[in-house]
Structure formats: structure tokens, C-alpha cells
Amino acid sequence: MPRKADSDMAEDGHTFVLPETFFAAGNLSGFCYPAHASFLVEDNDPKITPAVAAGAVFRLSMPENEQAWGPESNPKFILLQFLRPTVWKIRFDPTKQAVDGYTDKNGRAIILDTLTSLRMHLDEAENIWWRTDIADVEKAANNLGYYSLKSIKFGSRQDLNTNVNGTVALELRVHKSPFRIEAIREVTESAYNIPFGTKPHTAQKIIWSTPPRFLGFKTVGTANNVILTSNKPGHGKYLGFGGQGGQHLLKRPTLMNYFNFDNMTYSSVYGLGPKDEREPLYHSEPYWIELGGVPGYKSQVSTFIENHSQVMVDFLSTNSGQIRAATRFGEMQYCMFSGDDLPELIRSVTSVLGRSSLKPRYTLGHHQSCYGYDSRAKVLEIGREYVKRDIPLDAIHIDVDLQEEYRTFTIDVNGKFPNPKAMFAELRGLGIVCATNITPVINNHNGSNYQTLQDALEKDYFLPDIRYNEYGDGPVPAQEVKYIVYENGTKFLLDPSKEIGTFTGAKHNFLDNYDTGKPYAGGVGYGGSLGAPGHYLDLNRKDVREFWGQQYAYIFEQGIEFIWQDMTTPSIAKEYGDVKGLPFRLMVTDDSYEADGQSQKRRPAIEIWALYSYNLHKATFEGLNKLPSRYNKRNLIIGRGSFAGQHRYAGLWTGDNASSWDHFQISVSQVLGIGLIGNEISGADVGGFMPRWVDPKGFQPWAEPELLIRWYGAYTLLPWFRNHYHGKRGMKLFQEPWAFTDHYFSNPRAFTEGDRYIWLAVEPVCRYFIKLRYTLMQLLYDAMFEHQFDGLPIARALIITDSNDTTLLSENDWCLDNQYMVRNDLLVCPVMKPHSESGGGREIYLPQSSWWYPFNLGITPEGRLPGRKLAARIKGGDRFFVDAHISSDDGWLPHILPMYVREGGIIPQISVRQSTTGNKEPNPVVVHFYPGENVQNEYSMYLDDGVSRSSAHPHAHVDTTFGGLNPSAYLESGIDPLAAYEYCELRFSQICTDQTRTIGISCPHDGYGLEKVQEDIGDNITIIVWHEPGKLETRVLSAESGIELSDVVVEYLPDIAATKVVLPVGFPHKKDGAVEIVFDSNAPLAFNKQVVLN
Q1: Which of 698, 701, 697, 691 is nearest to 660 (CA)?
Q2: Is the dihedral of CA 845, 824, 958, 46 positive or negative?
Q3: 85 Cβ contact list (under 8 Å, min separation 6)
Q4: Which residue would you say has higher pLDDT here, 126 or 782?
């Protein structure tokens, strides 16, 4: 078919548009740009318009010389709302003809359905009292003045009620003419700029602003394109943007396009691969953070755009001083968050958008997956071989191969997977749980015995084939329909009446089904001749979501433990829809807002594009919670993509990548970017899913051994750790680490001597990385558990933990792409380039705020050792090269992944187990304390059963005691009704001064019980206190009442210059049973002498 010009496509309101086309000067010249703003009291009665209860609505008008829109007739309305005292939202919809067109409803990304309920519950949870106020500020004749909309905080409810002792938290100045907005906040000087003994200075600063004519809109058909422009401060740096490609965490000028679809290998639209930020990927998260916008002051702001259709961002590409964000349908909802530092900002964002639900402990384990584990024998062989090779494994993911004729929710019990219960039981005996791939297609080929299909047809639950035409004269004739396809940078149009898929049952009569109201006929391709034709449930309906959730009962009864949610867009074969998704003009139910019991409207799919995948994850999560067989069990759902807010229901894997260094090199910054908005479990397919294309040979049938080793190293302590590959015919032969050894020995003569060492290194090096992860499993779990309280990710960009180091935003910004922190004390620095480029090592930068020690903990085949003697500490701010070449020599293994511990750090360690679920014997905890000077640190360890929902903290971030919360809103808001504090928190502290180190242990909460703690970790806690090389310290033990010092064992370990302290785990559980260990360098005691106990 002839290709339609992009300029023509821009005038089709209901199509996909490239940002280059949208932001072109010719297109933007057709926008209307309001120039004047006015405030009318009668527009702002909260009794009539509840949406203005915490904000104000303004009337907008055009310059008198612009004929497109007269200044007096047909005004437009813009709404500014405060969600929290330092969080505000700009809402604009040019189609709203009256003030009451703006409702109090929140979109689905926000945890509660209305702004009123959100404010009330977060106010209660955070113990905050505040209100808003607006004033008209007149200025000189040459400036018409502005409206001042303020959020005002009070110290108590009584102060609020009497309107006394209020302080302004944030002011929005809405300038009358020319219309523009400024956000002003009192901010404090950064600590590193203040001389010792000087009180930090505070000042009113503009923390965010727009230029004049910042808001524009244009109608194309019935589509309302809106653009909002903000100013970039000269010093501002930006990060976030979800997982939207590119190798840099700090974004350079670019165009970005948020439109989630099945973009295999991240190269469909532009054909340049994963480092091109313009590619729209599987997950849409239009969220970014500005750092350093007010130099020398504690001020950070972030932006989130809530719109389920196409969102585009011109990030400094056209104008280096402006960021332009655009939506193409519905209301522009532009949310702004402000705070002193990045952790505060993340806490604020996740209090509004929600935090990830607490997941089972095995989530953090090592997972193995393959599209090609297509028989019971293969799956069992994989599980047995991992155990035989002594490589820890928690889970196997079985793709759609498990299904009977690709029928979702079925198992091929009469074919390749007989007696699945026995298979899953055997794997559980090995400590391995299983997931299976669930896609949203319901196969309609030969489906008379397919119960899910028949029930959905009977209940009328499928999306009907009803097409949209904005002109009201009937849909486009079926013969004229052309679907848009992008492949490898080329766009073409496809005739669905002539194109037929290659899989069984793909043939259908498009013309007979088109716009008839019959179930929409689609289908999904799984590669080559594999796939399924089918219908799609209307998951934007609550009753249909409930039906979807019920379908999981059978596979969980058979032994499946968690869900791999795939093809989520939904991904549809190109013959059935636009850009491998639903047809843009197919009418789908609109669930963007709570329907208030009214019948829901339908909209063209493109207008609410990301909503389907959001509700798919939500339906699965809610359905699993309701299965009787899963009562009180946490959910793990790993999904391929959706929209912000999905993280409340599921983790995120970043889609179908490939075994290339480019894909590997963006994968760390992807995880770090995704974690900034509350998604704690995310990651790429380790090793790459698709094989690498090698001209002229074709696909390379395995990942390069060096690439796989480096990928395992980089992901050793990232949250989601799954090796997944395409193992079907013509793709990869293997990707399991031990398979490289077997392949080499199957034909050693085929390898050069240079290749031999790298092929034989894969298994032992990857085994070491995996075992190292399992020794640090408690560290990962504690960070995951603590996410309930602070919203922080497990793996953290350095700018979160070391925000005072301003070089991270300038000359050392390169390290943000490929170094990360686990919690606050452990720095991971993987090698991200091949040996041919890196020489087998990498440049390291250590943040300035601390001294650092090379990581000294490791594993051996015999189990855990206390560690190696501390090497000399390294000053923060140092930059140096480290040799990390690959070798399978046991003594060199710890050096292949450079890692560093912050001075004063506290790191827990446990023994290596084959999995987190298999061995039920106690796994003792060793807590390592590192030396430091003038530092203090705290670490909370969370002990529970690792699987129960009742372990969670019900008041982690929203207070459920307030009476207005409907029980059905609990899970939506992040509150689990089964959460019951059933965990034990052990708190470890360390205070280091010039002369002493004081280590404390306490138990601030125990809802788990000492007996269960002992079952999990044994009767004792072991503490290893690492000493600065050459520094002698007296070891003194003191304790509160009720603790017998005779029960404490203290031993100095001269070979590693550390003190080992073993004490009963029950000590800190006793009332007032805090334990202190004091080390005093004033009276040094020779290491070979007896330890003194006081």
C-alpha cells in the first residue's frame, strides 16, 4: 500500500503521530494560546464544584487581535489544584464549556478515586493540617498583577480551625496577562555551602515556572491536542522518564513518545535500537525529576502527566530552555511534586501514586525462563540440572507452551504436560516454584470445549466490533480500513481484508465482522506459525475483571504459584490492529474515572490506549486475592508494560530485548529510572530474549558468553533477576549458565584457545554471582519490605543516596548510568562494556560524602565465610580504574564485580541456599558493621514468613482508621485488608566518633514472635565488627536489665582483623532489652589479649 505522508497523518485525529511531526513549527502554529487569565468568585464555589475545594479555576481568553477565539466569547477554563501542601496539579480540557465540567475525580494512576478522599486520608496518615487560599494581587499599570493561590500548613487541627499560626507551604502565582504560572517555595541552603556553626539561610525561590503563552490547544477532528511548556532553569538536570530507552539516566535533549506497544528489540519506529530515546516502549510512564534547579538550595521538583493516550515530550530538543509536554486526547493533567531532596520527593510521589504491594520473598531469587520449555520433561530437566550444578534457583517460568492449543488458562494435560500437579510438586520439592505466561487473548478457534470462551460469549463480555467516526456519518468503509505498522524503522499500511496471519485459525472474514457489534476478532502471533486467533475481554468493565480473575482458579489448583503477564497492550498480530495493538477506532469501555454507578461510555481505543493493560494487571491482582486457595498469600505478577500505577499490582519487566551490548548497557539505567516512581520490582531479561542478528549468518544461536557473564554481574543485586530467552527453532539453543559448559565439551575442537576460557568461565562465574546474591538476600528483602514505608526503590541511583555530591550532576554524571546503590550502604559497579573496549575493567567513581571500603564479603563452595580482611579505605570523590577481567579462578571471582561499602555501613548476610523456599532449616544471620569516622547509621531488618499478606504494615502510608474509606478501595489505595503487622523488626545502629564506636541492637516491633524468628534464623545473632586496618580498639559490652552477659560470646579474629560477637536472638526481644557494644580507641587493647567485658 502507498505510504501516507506524515503531514497528512497529523491531520487524522485518531492515529499515531511522531513527535517530530507534532512539535513541528507548522503544526504548532495552528494552536490557540490563551493570553489572559481571570478569577471569578462565582466560578469557585466548592459546594457547586467540589474540584475547587483545594484549588481554583480560572477563565482564559485570547489576545484581541487573534480571530481564532475571541476574548469575551466561549472562555476556556483551567483548574489548579493542591493535592498535598507541596503537590499541585494543572488540569486543562478545552472542550469543557463550564466550570462544573471539572470533577473531583482522580485518574486511575492515583490511589483513591477523588481528590477529597485522597486529601483526607493522607492528611490523617501524615498528621497534617492545611488549607488553600487565593488572593488578587494588583501591581503597577504596566503589569496587571497576579492571583496568589497558596497552600497553608498549621501546627494543629485547632490552629486550622481558628486560622492562626499558619505558614505558607507553597504559592502558585497565576499571572493575569500575559498568562503564565510560577511556583514559589521557601527553601533552605544546602548543607555543603554553609560554614561550620552558621545557621542555614532560607529564602523564597521560584522552583518552577512557565513562559508566557505556555498553554496551547488544537482540535483535529474530535481530538483535542494540548501542549504545556515549562521553563528549564539553567542549572537543572533531569532524570526519570520511566524505562524509555536511552543509555543515560540524566537525559540529554531529545524527543520522547509515550505510547506503550509491542516494540520488539526497541527498534520498530525508528530502527536505530535501544539507545534511541524516541522509541515508544512497552511501558508508559511520563514522569521526570528536575535536580539542581535552584543552585545551592534544597529544592527538587518532579512532573507526572496522567493521560492514558499518547503523551509526547519535547525535552529541550527545540529550545534548550523549555520542556514541552503534549497530550492528544482528553484532559491534560500535569502533576507537580516538590521537596527538599530526592528521597522526600519519592516519598511524596509514592504516597499519591501508591507503592508496590509487598511481594513474596522468592520474587528476589534467581529465575529461569525460556520460550521453548515446551514439555514436562524439559521443565523437570531444567529444575533438576540447576540443583545438580549447585546453582541456586527459585523459579521456572513456563511460556504459553504450557497451554492446550494456546488457550489461556489451560494446561495441555493430554499432550506435553500430563499430570501437572505431580510436576509442580516435584519442582517444589527442589525449592522451585513456577509461573506461567498469561496473555489477554481468548482463543476462538475450535473453541466449543473451551469454557472461558463459551462463558464470556454467553455473558457478552468481549469487546464488540464497533468502530468510531468523528464526523458522525458512520465508520470508515471496511474496504478503506488500513492498519498502521512500524517495523525496523519503516511505516507501512496494511489492508486487514487481504492480510492473513500465519498461525492456525488466523483466517477470518474481516468484512463480515467489521462494525457489526459482534465480538472483535483479533489474534496474537507467538512467532512464525505459532499463535492464536481470538477475542479480547472488555477489561475496563469491573464485572469483566472479576470474571477474568476467576479464570485463574484451575492453574493455581494444579500448582502454579505466580503469574507472568504478557502481551499486555494488548499485543495483537499486525493483521488485526494498529501498531500491533487494538484498532485505533475500535470502541472500548472508558474506565478512566470511577463511573459512580452510571453506565460507562465507550471511546476509541487510541484515546485511552494504556488503560486496557492497566486494568489487565489490576484484574489479575484482585482475582488472585479472591481465590480461596490463595487466602493470605502475597501475589507476584510480573507484567510487560502498562501505565504508571501498574506498580501497585505488578512488577515490570522491560519487554523483548535482545542479546546485544546496547540492550545490556541501557538495562541498568532503565531499572533505576523506573524505580523513581514507585516500581520496586523491575528488570530486563538477563542475557537478552531475542538472539543477536549477525550479518550475513543470521541469528546467533546463543548469547555471547562474555555478555551473559557481565549481565549476570550487573544484575547480581538488581531487584528482578530472570534469565529469559527465545528457544524456539531457529532462535537460541540455550542460555542457562551451565549449558555453556556442556556445549563446549560437546565439541571442544570447534573452539579456539581464546574462546575456551570464556566459555568455561560462564558457569562458575555466574554461579558465584547468584550465590553472592543469595548471601545478601536479607539485604534485598529488607529494602523491599521497607518500600512500604518510604517508597524508595531497592536499587537506587547514586543521586538518591548522595544528593550532596553535586559532581554527580556535572563531571561525574557518567557513573549514574552504570553504578547503583542497594539501600544506602552497598555500591555496585558492574563492567558494562566488552573486553575489547574496556580492557576487562572499568572506571569507578566513589561519591564524595563518605569514605569507602572495597567489598570484602563473599562465598566459597563450603558456604559463607566472615569475609576478607578490610583493604585500605578510599576517599570519597576519588576516580580510578579497576581491573575486573573475567576468570574462573576461585580467588579472582570476587573481583569481577567491583563493589564498595560506605563507611559506617551495616550489611546483613545469610548462608547460601538452593532457593528461598526449599530448605526449612534455620538460616543464621550475620550482621556486618564497618568502621567510620563521625558517622551514624541505622539498619532495620524485617523477619517474617516471606509469603503472607498479613505480614504487611496496614498503616504504612495511608491511615485506614479514618471512617470514610470504602473497604473496596483498600487494595486500590495500597492498603491490604489482611495486613496485620505480622513481622519482626530488628534495628541495628552504629555511632562512630573520633574515639568510640557504639553498636546497638533493639526490637521496636515484634508481631511475628520469638519462636518463629528462631525457626527462621536460629537461636543467635552473629555480629562481625570490622576494624580499620592497623587501628586497635578495646571491645566493651554493656546491656540493659535482664540480659546475662555470660550468654554472649566475643571473639577476636586476627586473620581478618574483626571482632565476632554472638548473642541470643531473644536479647533484643526482652523488655528494655537493648544491647550496646562499645569500642574505645582511647585505651587500645592488643588483639592477642583477652577481650574485656563490662
Answers
A1: 691
A2: negative
A3: 128, 130, 151, 152, 153, 169, 170
A4: 782
Instruction: Tell me 895's DSSP state.
Output: G
Under 8 Å CB-to-CB from 645, ≥6 apart: which residues? 108, 109, 110, 353, 354, 614
Rounded Cα distance, 14 and 467, in Å: 12
CA distance 34 to 641: 36
Average pLDDT over residues 872-889: 97
For residue 455, how far is the Cα from the chain centroid? 35
296 or 454, higher pLDDT:
454
pLDDT averaged over every residue in the chain: 91
CA–CA gap between residue 208 and residue 183 (Å, rounded): 5
Residues 187 and 340: beta-carbon distance below 8 Å: yes
Report the relative pairing of strands 722-726 and 685-686 from DSSP bridges: parallel
Residue 957 to residue 976: CA distance in whole angstroms? 11
Q: Which residues contact 521 (CB under 8 A, 6 or more apart)?
A: 444, 465, 508, 510, 513, 533, 534, 535, 576
Q: How confident is the model at residue 1092 (pLDDT cuts 50, 70, 90)?
A: very low
User: What whole-number distance in Å separates Cα of residue 554 and Cα of residue 827?
Assistant: 44
Peptide bond before residue 392 is cis, with ω within 30 degrees of 0: no
Q: One-letter amino acid identity for 319?
A: N
User: pLDDT at position 971, please?
Assistant: 46
Whether residue 385 contacts residue 738, with contact meaning beta carbons closer than 8 Å, is answered with yes
Region 51-57 average pLDDT: 96
Judge whether 1056 and 1027 are in contact, CB under 8 Å: no
pLDDT digits (tens, 9 = 90+) for 599-627: 689 999 999 999 999 999 999 999 999 99
Half-sphere exposure of residue 993: CA atoms within 13 angstroms, side-chain side: 8
3-state SS class at 959 = coil
Record the cell numbers describing residue 365, joined without a space. 531469587
Cα(801)–Cα(821) distance, integer angstroms: 8
Give the Cα separation of 1031 and 1028 in Å (integer): 5
Is the pLDDT assigned to residue 448 strictly greater than 70? Answer: yes
Which residues make Cβ contacts (< 8 Å) with residue 272, sequence separation at least 6? 279, 489
Q: Residue 495 in 3-state DSSP?
A: coil
Tell me the torsion sign for CA atoms 457, 460, 462, 468: positive
The angle at the Cα of 657, spanning 655 to 660, to the nearest 5 degrees, equals 165
How far apart are alpha carbons 532 and 512 in whole angstroms? 20
d(CA 31, CA 1023): 66
Statement: residue 968 has pLDDT above 50: no
Position 557: which residue type?
E
Of 780, 777, 812, 814, nearest to 796 (Cα)?
780
Higher pLDDT, 763 or 219: 763
Contact yes or no for 868/892 (Cβ under 8 A): no
Confidence of residue 45 (pLDDT cuts 50, 70, 90): very high
Asked if residues 235 and 813 have their Cβ atoms less than 8 Å apart, the reply is no
DSSP class of residue 687? T
Strands 395-398 and 433-438, by their bridges, are parallel
CA nearest neighbour of 913 among 948, 863, 951: 863
Alpha helices in 84-217 (DSSP H): 115-126, 157-162
Report residue 117 as a C-alpha cell: 478522599
pLDDT for residue 597 is more than 70 = no
- For the cut 80, the answer to whether the pLDDT of residue 477 exceeds it is yes
H helix or E strand, kind and range, residue 1036: strand 1034-1039
% of the chain exceeding 90 in pLDDT: 81
Task: Give the separation between CA 362 and CA 982, rounded to whole angstroms.
Answer: 18
Going by DSSP bridges, is the β-strand pair 841-845/879-883 parallel, antiparallel, or unpaired? antiparallel
- Sorted by sequence, the CB contacts under 8 Å of residue 420 that are 6+ apart come out as 376, 402, 411, 413, 558, 559
How far is Cα 14 from Cα 234, in angstroms, rounded to an integer? 37
Distance of alpha carbon 825 from alpha carbon 821, whole angstroms: 7
Residues 6+ apart with CB under 8 A from 891: none
